[in-house]
Amino acid sequence: MSDIFSWPLGPLPTLAALAFGYLLGSIPFGLILTRMAGLGDVRKIGSGNIGATNVLRTGNKKLAAATLLLDALKGTAAAAIASRWGIEAGIAAGFAAFLGHLFPVWLGFKGGKGVATYVGVLLGLVPVMLAVFAAVWITCAYITRYSSLSALVATAVSPVVLWFLGYEKVALLFLVLTLITWWKHSANISRLVSGTESKIGSKG
Questions:
Q1: pTM of the entire structure?
Q2: Would you give the distance in Å from CA 195 to the centre of its chain?
Q3: Helix (H) and strand (E) counts for the chain?
Q4: Residue among 150, 183, 8, 13 at smallest CA distance from 82
């Protein structure tokens, strides 16, 4: 417990991990894939988001699935590769990859909401947590039919489970990522409270 806030990684390696993670995370796969498919700028439809949910609004499920996968894998790659130099390097790179997705410099710092990249970083740092996250998400989605609520619940549970599994430093990282994710989903939370959030499979 006493070394939770220790950071043995030096300043330069930390900066290198942050830069590496941010560059990977800031790749806007949703925008790239929709443009390559001749579907135009995904930021001009739906929510204006570059994530998989908005890509799905183009009507192309395969592109949405590819976006989801790539947005997750860029987080996984950043965290897993950097972790070869220690868990702190993985944490720094994973954190930066998440921020890179949310705030890509190439798009005026207007990116996605981060759930896929969140899961990808989780996989890169503690692979077993992918099953935990998926189980919580699927259970909540089955009961409520709300995708956004399922993501919010799964992100809330993840830091708690990480802490009890003994991954204290990673748990602190995901506590921060969860708070940011909830902030990015503030509009969804408002709609959930008011009962106007769209359910899975809804045409509205």
A1: 0.93
A2: 25
A3: 10, 0
A4: 13
